[in-house]
């Protein structure tokens, strides 16, 4: 019986403690809610790498000790907050967060630490600004993704910006003439395909993003242009007097060419000659130390060279031509 009484007494004690803890938690929450609130909290300005936020605190029986500001990318699945500043004076009403990513949405947390005049205890909590964002900046990651040789199409790709409302992507030919300007009305767009592309032409492509506003569109600066080009189209292949004669169409804007030869269509290619941009033909005396045989089939492609940013860029392997039928085959 004594053990049962002890258990009952202990259970009653624990129940009372639990009720007290719950009431205390409620009191803390009520104290936080009633003592300090932010009656104003919003983004008031931004740049491509900063956000300025403003707030105004309303106090009831409380003394603010300090403010803090932290942030997290909206699409961060872990929702990890980075502290931008802490220990701001009670008189502070705004702060500029710097070093952010362009065209990105953020959650901003305004942390408040205060001392209650009712019980002389120190409390802290935070209120949030949702969907704060930096303005769009120069788009990154622009690249030539694929040259559709037989369809005369050029596909480019880039890294999208969460805060962007759309993009403009421009392609110009080697003469500086605009070939095409494509407009995208979605910030998540990441690819563009230019049509009616000439295989014997070097193109430059650039991109910019924009955001919609009350005064119209706000554009980022244009990205650094990239050069896009394909291998030179072969016109004729002949074997004469044990030599291979190759002729091709010049690629406007190219800086040179390299000729590759193999006895198999899919592998074994070796560079046999490199020529300048003004050349559109080459005579190859030997392959693998031997003269070319008239009855044997050889496979050829001409690689285009383009100088950009101090580097020599080369076209990718798209297709080859054979000496017997002059058929064009696409590489797998």
Describe the protein's architecture and organization.
- This protein has 332 residues and is mainly beta.
- The protein folds into 3 domains: 31-133, Immunoglobulin-like (Sandwich), CATH 2.60.40.10; 143-228, Immunoglobulins (Immunoglobulin-like, Sandwich); 234-330, Immunoglobulins (Immunoglobulin-like), CATH 2.60.40.
- It is built from 1 helix and 24 strands.
- Strands 18, 19, 21, 22, 23 and 24 form a 6-stranded antiparallel β-sheet that branches. Strands 10, 11, 13, 14 and 15 form a 5-stranded antiparallel β-sheet that branches. A 4-stranded antiparallel β-sheet has the order 4-3-6-7.
- Strand 18 (256-262) and strand 19 (270-276) form a beta hairpin.
- The termini are far apart.
Strand content: over 45%
Q: How confident overall, as mean pLDDT? A: 88
Instruction: Provide the number of structural domains.
Output: 3
CATH topology of the largest domain: Immunoglobulin-like
Based on the structure given, which CATH architecture of the largest domain is correct? Sandwich
Full CATH superfamily name of the largest domain: Immunoglobulins
SSE order: HEEEEEEEEEEEEEEEEEEEEEEEE
Contiguous low-pLDDT stretches (5 residues minimum) are: 19-33
Shape by Cα distribution: rod-shaped
Please state the CA-atom Rg, rounded to the nearest Å. 34 Å
Q: For the report, how would you describe the main beta sheet? A: 6 strands, antiparallel
Could you tell me the number of beta strands? 24
Number of H- or I-type helical stretches: 1
CATH class of the largest domain: Mainly Beta
Oligomeric nature of the chains: single chain
Structural class: mainly beta
Distance between the termini: 88 Å
Helical fraction: 10-25%
